[in-house]
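Q: I have two molecules that I believe assemble together. Could you output structure tokens for the complex as a whole instead of separate predictions?
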Amino acid sequence: MSFIPVIGLEVHLQLKTASKIFCGCSTGFGAPPNTQACPVCLGLPGVLPVLNRQVFLYGVRVALALGCGIQPRIVFHRKNYFYPDLPKGYQISQYDLPLGMNGAVELASGKRVRVLRVHMEEDAGKLLHRPEGGSLVDLNRAGVPLLEIVTEPDLENPEQAYEYLKALKGILEYLDVSDCDMEKGSLRCDANISLKARADAPLGTKAEIKNLNSFRSVARALTYEIGRQEEVLREGGRVIQETRLWDDVKGTTLGMRSKEEAHDYRYFPEPDLVPFAVAAEEVEKAKAALPELPRQRAERFAREYGLPPADAAGLTSSRTTADYYEACVLKLPPAKGQAGPKAAANWILGDLAREINERNLDSIEQLSFNPDRLVELVDLIDSGKISGKMAKEVLTESLQSGQSPRAVVEAKGLSQVTDPEAIRSAARAVIQEQPRAAEDFRQGKSSALMFLVGQLMRKMKGSASPAVSQQVLKELLEKQ
Amino acid sequence: MTLRQIQELYRQKKSSPSEVAEGLLARIGQWEPKVHAFSWFDPESVREQVKLLEKGGPAADRPLWGIPVLIKDNICVQGVPTTCASKILAGFRPPYDATVVERLKQAGAVLLGMANMDEFAFGSSCEHSCYGPTRNPWDLARVPGGSSGGSAAAVAAGMAPAALGSDTGGSIRQPASFCGVVGLKPTYGRISRYGLIAFASSLDQIGPITRTVEDAALLAQVMAGRDPRDSTSADVAVPDYAGALRQTAQGLRIGLPKEYMGEGVEPLVRKAVEESLALFKRLGATVKEVSLPHTEYAVPTYYIVATAEASSNLARFDGVRFGHRADGKTLLEMYTRSREEGFGPEAKRRITLGTFVLSSGYYDAYYNRALKVRTLIRRDFERAFEQVDLLVTPTAPTPPFKLGEKMEDPLTMYLSDILTISVNLAGVPALSMPCGFTESGLPFGMQLIAKPFGEETLFRAGGAYERETEWHKREPKL
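A: Yes, here they are, computed for all two components at once.
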């Protein structure tokens, strides 16, 4: 018997406001401990929070982009619990009246993942556990604005979870409200997963997985957790409701303390912040000001640049990639029609994507190959200076040396030979060396010609223009 | 001396801030060993401030130039021990000034020291203090009221011409009544709470305790107004309170809420309030009986809302960053021992109560219901103020009681705030001023209540009454 996984994700997004959510301290990352911590961050007696309006505006932008309805009245709640990284003994968060509710993210596969809620809250500080014992508290992060984005348990497998996170990050990048950098912790994800026996069975007991530091680890941890829970259930056991920590090195999850004695957070409305109404016009204005989002941009790319939908979707899922692509298209010589845009798309989705992967980079921006260079490369092929095959070599060389594609071609003498005279002697030699293929061609087997072109290219170490090579070979064979 | 009298002496160059300060220091030397109104006091700090002020001289933008003010021990003063009379804040010196302290300093006031109080403002007698109780200057065997007992006692004893208190359920007005002085609980949002160590955030207000209504208006004028650091401070213009003081009571419509004159109120107090109303009538006011029908629910509602907020507000006292920290082998042990040792019994009682009413499963039955009743209480006042401009009631049901009299029975102690609590739940402003003395010379007060941001009406009525009476001129004898 196999089980059906039920997965929901909680994403915590740090907003890139200049100052914190309830005071004027900087949100900058990496400052020496406790240098960005005022009396409000420290939770000193007597201090009061004042909401940073930009946090609300960013929150509305995200909620709207995810298709959420906006709460007409904004109320904050206190979530009470003790921990040394939580200076006030409570976190100011939102509870039963979150900023946004009932949105959705549509995946490329057509799967619709419902977003239950989007709410604003403050981040906690960080603890530094010393190997010699004891812990240090750094409150620079305390009060950094967060949005929590929670899905319904709509995800059916780890791949979908991965796909959702990519799609969500894509949308968030377009909104320009966060660095979305998992390494710096500006985007964090916790996963809830349970198994059930049949589609119509009630939800099983879930485990919450934390310490997921990349989208890949989310998928890996879910795969592991599905296996673990399946084993427990197969052996007639019971899954315990608990928080489990993902160990990225070992590739396993480990149970923290059990949630059987669940926390009672004693939520109640934050009396230090006055609830405020959100005018419908304000929401409409924010909606109108939303930037073009990945789905809309993909539709436009397909329409304007004649791209197949899959290409358009691939290019637009990340804002930096789409911006890169669009920069290229605008620099392409206009006379080329749609061949240019399609060629640029192929390069980005093919060779450049592979280079990014191999180098473990996050985005195309980090590849030292700007749009000008890609346009140059496409142009070199287009004008017959180099073959497509040579272009791959030029790309590799350009990335390694940092030289522009044109400089690489010149430096390496890679320029393509297009003069028939220069090719003719090598072509004769190939025909002599391959009498059977020559004979086959004369007998009407046209595929033999392609074989001979290949041999000729090899002889000339790829420098001959394939088109001219084919023409010269054909002439020689027909004359003989 | 009143603030006005001191200002007049300065104006006529008959006295100087150092002379006034030295006079007070001498008075403190006499009275403080008996009354114990201060939680912190440093004569040298007073002399230094005075010296600086005299160097700068008086100025138009320094309306409180050279005026000594005592600060309640829960209002943060930069560099000065601010402890809420709690062991858990032992040694805490805030790195910042409360907004009211900042405004007082800018206005040229001299900070006289910190006033004793019930720990975290939890109490009505000033007996719940880690520094020991403050005594009533009119009778040292009696309590000064609370929680701002130190502030009221110091003003009554002439150790401070004015003091700041905080009022969550009567903590300014009840001690003012017990000590025969004037205490103002402003409209919620009228004065910034920034720097007031929170007891119950939705109820707390800072206010002045003075010898006269006129002086209360003077201090309120300086402290009132929007503060960007306190989201709950209102963006409502501050009127000219001195102008309001000069008006008469002619045409004032006064309401007497019948629920406030019931059996629990001592006949003597009731009679004094009735006589005060008769005086108001002679001054041209009209008086009618009104009803605040949800009054009987105020005490339970208050003790749910206030303790719920307090349980959360006091969570930050965990031994991690400031104040008292006990050793512990684990984090939990450090937390529990620090709080066990740091908080007094009343604080523990209220934290426990507040934690309980917010617990899942109980929230709706207690906290949520209390919020609904609070709305009803607020509406009671709204309806009353459709008919009248001002409500007049006793401030406390009795004159000051004896030390230790109510310590064993928290419920009886809670009931001594029965007439002041509704005002905080409704967020309206109220003023307590002396309106009589017992045969043995114990003072008690009456409470004037106005609609939100109606402090002007309180000053107008209070000023008119004060001009016609002598209660505020009496002084206790050592």
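A: One point stands out. The radius of gyration of chain A is 29 Å.
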